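#struct-queue
[09:14] JT: dropping the first one here, sequence first, then the structure tokens:
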Amino acid sequence: MLFRNRFLLLLALAALLAFVSLSLQFFHLIPVSVAKNGVNGKSRKRIMPDPVTEPPVMDPVYEALLYCNIPSVAERSMEGHAPHHFKLVSVHVFIRHGDRYPLYVIPKTKRPEIDCTLVANRKPYHPKLEAFVSHMAKGSGASLESPLHSLPLYPSHPLCEMGELTQTGVVQHLQNGQLLRDIYLKKHKLLPGDWSTDQLYLETTGKSRTLQSGLALLYGFLPDFDWKKIYFRHQPSALFCSGNCYCPVRNQYLEKEQRRQYLLRLKNSQLEKTYGEMARIVDIPTKQLRAANPIDSMLCHFCHNVSFPCTKNGCIDMEHFKVIKMHQIEDERERQEKKLYLGYALLGAHPILNQTVGRMQRAAEGRREELFALYSAHDVTLSPVLSALGLTEARFPRFAARLIFELWQDREKPSEHAVRILYNGVDVTFHTSFCQDHHKRSPKPMCPLENLVRFVKRDMFVALGGTTNYYDACHREGV
């Protein structure tokens, strides 16, 4: 009898707990299981939403926090995920540099006091930070293509210089490198233990923040690497267009896009009022304040939790910041809708995508060079690539953003190769214009390499009006 009563009591308690749990989920007091940072088939939200914490309407503060990308716990990612019968062949990584000091200052205000020395016991922290500094100090004889050899290998100023990488930026890319190491080296053995120089392809623009970001990621990926095996190439153009940068039609598209931006700003009375208030505070003409690009400096204050500047006339505050940031979000939305930027993006991204496809094709043929390629770049590098790929829902590249192309071989059919595209850890392959309908026509779980090749070699030009090659697309009349 005692046993029966205990059993009934436990049964009643279990039923009560089940009822409470369902009630909490129904009233949204606890989150139900949702794929974090994912994009599923039913959702058309922008890439990298957080279904649990993302606000129901566009929130400029939330978007700014995502842009800052403040290092915290290790993130979950989808890099390296594939059916068991696929073998990883090569990886191509495009990064935006990490958190940096502003490129502009708000006139007549004090510069934000950010320390750009690297201190191991200061937040944000990374266990490899001290070892990174020590290793960079040994790199004075590193093989860097001119003029990179004149740049410092890590940030070191007590008061940051304009555009300088911060400790936050270094930690962001140490984390990126360690994440990619755990996936591509430890799990998939992409590089052999005795890897050689020709198995890495490293390229950066001539800015200290991109070189240092590339080195931070590389150190997280290959800790204590042999400096004699490292060769960074210099890329003069932020578009990574090498010898194919002259493109008059691309510049025409850019001029039209800039005109669209100007007209959108004129229509935003709240934005103009905000600029006027801020100009009064710092006692300069509104036109001069706008030209100083105040959002760049304000984002630094925001990301580093430093108060916005004040003068005897008052303080720039969070409301000013929200208005300008919200306009940026609206501008990004209209940019995707008006399609003017797409022409610029297709022509701007073609050279670097063409290089990447060429490396993938050589790897698919069995060549063992350039198995891991790293391009350390800028937001103005990644943004056109994202648009050219058709990723219209992708957020603007945050600090330390990463865009990755993976090449896989089907072990069951070794002649067949497939690609995956990942943006900040999210698999966006089937959101690209060249593979968004693939799953409707084929049972294959990954996107065939030939889809990407056909897109870069042909379809990009078809979208530009029927031309058949990059030169003709860049020089055609009547755009």
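[09:21] JT: and here's the second one, same format:
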Amino acid sequence: MRCPFCRESDSRVVDSRTSEDGAAIRRRRQCRHCGRRFTTMEATSLSVIKRSGVTEEFSRQKIMSGVRKACQGRPVSDDDLAKLAQRVEENIRSRGIAEIDADEVGLSILDPLRELDQVAYLRFASVYQGFDSLEDFEAAIDSLRADALLQSGQTREPTPDDFAD
């Protein structure tokens, strides 16, 4: 790291701290040549490769705006969307890759959105996964029902006989 005052390349780290969200490190440095101190920020970059081949920086805001459309009219707050976007980013960063396909980002959104709001999940999945028929919706709804049964402790769907006296 070059000193911004004397342009010397030899400096030592005096202090290091992570940023609030842990995505960057703030380092306080001191130049070994002139003795002046300066601050640097280090952050990992994450790029998204779009279908067109264009590469752009990953953006939580784009995640939030895309999911917000699916959540329109649903009881989902901006805080919920911010947490979802953070969770998606953490999931992607945990893979240890610097570039990811836009399709993979969309797939990473599905599970957290499914947990947040099932109707919004169906809306997002229908567009993202290109549902073409009622059968596609039925399969997704059946999957949601199966998950609900598992979470409630039931191993099968109730039948009319279960409710007979």
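[09:30] RK: nice, looked through the second one.
[09:31] RK: Residues 45-130 form one domain.
[09:31] JT: good to know. The helical segments are 60-70, 78-93, 102-116, 118-128, 134-152.
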